[in-house]
Design a protein that fits this description.
four-stranded antiparallel beta sheet; four-stranded mixed beta sheet; alpha/beta
Length: about 300
């Protein structure tokens, strides 16, 4: 099972799922008690720009992934053999693997979102998706524009899809150069925080305090870390890699390939949307992939 991160949120998400599976709204109610505001109301009513704020999106996506997983389990779905998460989604994966409680994960995620929001002033950072270029070509374009600011390949999502992040001036130049070099598309993403870039080093280091304060346990099932595609080992390893994850690239191709190499026969995405399901299909066309973002898709996932 895989859990999405920022970018998959949408106003009204999981309403259909909640109508059929009460555990969905119960999960949001639990989150609301931890956060001190009505998360379900905000997720259902918006406005979209509020939900898109990093400090709201991260707690919302942690909750959404867990809500989808609990709906799956309440419908008779089996516990997974392996879990992984894309960026923020790793926190949901760790909760599912009993490595950290939902309440402790929420506390860390709130702090993580605050630190990331504060790390770079609004409008200074940017992220963009580069489609239809080899990884090495994208890395080379980033190196070419380094004189104009930080520009780094930060999400290796699937063959032909790499996300870059850094200073907006440099990312704008990457878009121009990648397009000229033959990229199928180069799109600025609707985020202001340049996640997983070196501009987040301070945020990752500051997050260590919150990570040290939280209780972690060795995972009860395999959790593959998206920083390097290797399983988390113990509490200290989890803390160390979650801190580095803030400013290190997401190696999603390596993560999915590691799960397949370890015996994964089916991959199910738990959370709103189907972004990871699409990436997984592009990484390995032979493995059945499903997603859970509605009652219908949950039923299909049960029979995948």
């Amino acid at each position: 099972m895989v859990f999405p991160g920022q970018g998959s949120q949408a106003v009204g998400m999981q309403a259909d799922l909640a109508a059929q599976y009460p555990v969905v709204e119960q999960t949001y109610s639990e989150a609301s008690d931890l956060l001190g505001y009505d998360l379900w109301k905000l997720v259902q009513e918006g406005p979209p720009e509020k939900l898109a704020e990093t400090v709201i999106t991260q707690p919302a996506m942690l909750t959404a992934g867990l809500a989808a997983y609990r709906a799956w389990r309440s419908a008779g779905g089996a516990a997974p053999d392996q879990v992984a998460g894309h960026s923020l989604g790793e926190y949901t994966a760790l909760v599912v693997a009993d490595a950290v409680s939902f309440s402790a994960a929420m506390k860390i995620v709130v702090r993580r979102s605050e630190l990331m929001q504060q790390a770079v002033p609004a409008g200074v950072g940017a992220m963009a998706a580069i489609l239809g270029m080899d990884d090495e070509a994208v890395v080379a374009v980033c190196a070419e524009v380094s004189a104009t600011g930080v520009a780094e390949a930060v999400n290796f999502n699937s063959p032909g899809q790499v996300v870059v992040a850094g200073h907006k001036t440099a990312i704008d130049e990457v878009i121009v150069r990648a397009t000229a070099a033959g990229a199928r598309r180069a799109i600025l993403l609707p985020v202001s925080v340049p996640s997983h870039s070196s501009l987040m080093v301070g945020a990752g280091e500051a997050l260590q305090e919150a990570l040290l304060a939280a209780e972690f346990l060795s995972p009860s099932i395999t959790v593959v870390a998206a920083t390097d595609g290797k399983p988390y080992v113990d509490a200290d390893d989890i803390r160390s890699r979650l801190a580095r994850q803030v400013y290190g690239p997401v190696q999603w191709v390596a993560t999915v390939n590691a799960m397949l190499a370890a015996g994964a026969k089916t991959i199910v995405e738990c959370g709103p949307g189907k972004v990871l399901a699409g990436l997984c299909r592009r990484i390995d066309k032979a493995t059945p992939v499903a997603f859970i973002d509605s009652p219908d898709s949950l039923q299909k996932a049960l029979h995948t």
